[in-house]
Design goal:
The protein is α/β, with parallel strands linked by helices. The chain folds into three domains: about 150 residues, 3-Layer(aba) Sandwich (Rossmann fold); about 50 residues, no CATH class; about 100 residues. About 50% of the residues lie in helices and about 10% in strands. It contains 17 helices and nine strands.
C-alpha cells in the first residue's frame, strides 16, 4: 500500500500553517507557543515524529490530546514502562476465539475431511483452516497497529518512551521510519494515512541516536508568567484577574527555589481550582500554608520553603497591586 499524499493533505488540512496550528489548539483550550506550533506543522508536512522532552506536567501529553480533539481524529495512546513488548504495543492473537473455533472445527471434523483420500489431501484441507486462525479476524490490535489502520488519520502518543527498554526503542524504528508494522503470519501493514506521532520523555534515561535521528526535537519547559496566566485562564475561567496574577507570581517564585520537584503547569491549574473551592479572593500566608500540598509533593520541599512562605505570599500580593495601579501612580509599599 502506498502513502496517498493527497489524502494526507486533506486529512490534516486544518494544520496548513503555523498560525493555523496555534489557532486550532487555542480553540480546544491549549495555549501553544511559536516553537510548539512550528514543530507540529513540520511534523505533519515532513511526516516525521516529534520527540518532546521537558519536565513532567508542562503539557507534553496534553498537546497530543488537544491535537486529537482539534482534528477530530482518534488518539491512540501507548503508555511506556519497563518490560513493554510487542504483544502489548502492536498486537496479540485472540487466543480464546481461536480455541473456540478449534473446538467447533473438532466437532465438524468429518465434514471438513470429507472424502480426502490421502494424507496430502487431508493436510491440505486442514491447512486452509490454520491460515484462517492466523488471519486479521483473529488479531487483537494494540495502539501501534490501531494507529496504522485508521483510515481517517490519528494521533499516536507514545508516552514516556524513556521508561521503556532499549529493545523496545529499537523495535519502534520500523514504525517511525516507514509508518508500517510487520505481522509475520499476515505480512506488512502500512498506514495509508500516517498518524501524527508524538513521543514524550522525562529524561529518565538517554534515548538512542537512531530514535532521535528519526524525530523532530521539541523541548517544552516551564512557561513564563504571561503564558502561564493564559493557560490557567483557559482552564479555570472563573478565577479573578487579581487572584490569577498572585497565584502565578507565587508559583513562578516557588520554581526558583532549590526543590526536589518544582510545581508544574498542571499543579498551578489544580491550585487555582483549589483556591476557588476555598473561596479565596487573594493570597495570604495562612491560605498558602493550608493548600501548599497541592503544589509541592514532597515533605522535604514543604519544609524547605516554610520560612519563606510569608514573604513570598506578600510579594505575590504586591505584584497584583502594582498591576492595578495606573502608569506613573506611586506604589503604596
Amino acid at each position: 500500500m502506498t502513502i496517498d499524499k493527497d489524502l494526507i493533505a486533506e486529512t490534516y488540512s486544518p494544520l496548513s500553517s503555523v498560525a493555523a496550528v496555534s489557532e486550532g489548539l487555542l480553540s480546544v483550550g491549549y495555549i501553544s507557543s511559536e516553537e510548539i506550533s512550528t514543530a507540529i506543522y513540520l511534523a505533519v508536512h515532513l511526516r516525521k515524529p516529534i520527540l518532546i522532552e521537558g519536565p513532567a506536567g508542562v503539557g507534553k501529553t496534553d498537546l497530543a490530546q488537544s491535537l486529537s480533539r482539534y482534528l477530530d481524529v482518534p488518539l491512540e495512546r501507548l503508555q511506556c514502562y519497563e518490560g513493554l513488548d510487542e504483544s502489548k504495543s502492536l498486537y496479540e492473537w485472540k487466543y480464546g476465539k481461536q480455541l473456540l473455533y478449534t473446538q467447533i472445527l473438532k466437532d465438524r471434523l468429518n465434514d471438513v475431511v470429507g472424502d480426502a483420500g490421502t494424507i496430502a489431501d487431508l493436510t491440505g484441507r486442514l491447512a486452509t483452516f490454520e491460515d484462517l486462525f492466523f488471519s486479521h479476524d483473529f488479531l487483537e490490535p494494540r495502539p501501534l497497529l490501531r494507529a496504522m489502520e485508521q483510515t481517517s488519520g490519528s494521533v499516536l502518543l507514545i508516552d514516556e518512551i524513556d521508561k521503556s527498554d532499549e529493545e523496545f526503542e529499537a523495535f519502534l524504528l520500523e514504525v517511525l521510519s516507514d509508518y508500517q508494522v510487520t505481522v509475520p503470519e499476515i505480512g506488512t501493514i502500512k498506514a495509508n494515512v500516517p498518524p501524527i506521532v508524538i513521543l514524550t520523555s522525562n529524561n529518565v534515561r538517554d534515548l538512542g541516536d537512531a530514535l532521535k535521528r528519526r524525530c523532530l526535537h521539541l523541548y517544552i519547559g516551564f512557561p513564563d508568567a504571561a503564558r502561564e496566566r493564559e493557560i490557567v485562564r483557559a482552564r479555570v475561567p472563573d478565577v479573578s484577574d487579581s487572584l490569577l496574577t498572585q497565584l502565578v507570581s507565587f508559583v513562578q517564585d516557588l520554581r526558583t527555589k532549590d526543590l526536589r520537584k518544582r510545581p508544574s503547569i498542571s499543579e498551578t491549574v489544580d491550585w487555582a481550582r483549589t483556591l476557588l473551592l476555598m473561596h479565596a479572593d487573594s493570597l495570604d500566608e495562612a491560605m498558602v500554608r493550608k493548600t501548599l500540598n497541592v503544589l509541592l509533593k514532597y515533605e522535604s520541599d514543604i519544609e524547605a520553603t516554610s520560612n519563606a512562605i510569608g514573604s513570598m505570599a506578600r510579594n505575590a500580593a504586591s505584584s497584583s497591586e502594582s498591576k492595578r495601579l495606573p502608569s506613573g501612580y506611586p506604589s503604596l509599599s
